[in-house]
Amino acid sequence: MNEHIRYVTGQIQDADTLPALLTAAFYGLETVERATALLAETTPENHRTDCDNALTASVDAWWALSDAPTWSSPGHSTPAELAARTSALVLLISQTLLQAANKTSDPADRIACLTAVHHAGRVHDALKEIG
What we know:
mainly alpha; 84% helix; 6 helices; 2 domains
């Protein structure tokens, strides 16, 4: 998670336009959601309620930001165009995961990467139906 937080922090600090700020904040909130979900699963029982509350609030913040017209407009793309762009991103992510799987010597890392590629392939197939 530390690398995610570091990356999103840099994206937020580098954003200089309203769309870039909203997009960086949106990804920041996604990272907060993932981090609080992880905390909710791993913290001692006496902190679970706080972590669950933080998770719920982060989801609420994410949904609230998704209503911002400047960010939430998909660039006036048709669903088919957005599906095609998303599908291309899925392929890029899959290629990246395959490279990572080839570079790791840890079998658990390799399995995680290849499993993610398998699921990404399912995303790609589903998106092809939209286009």
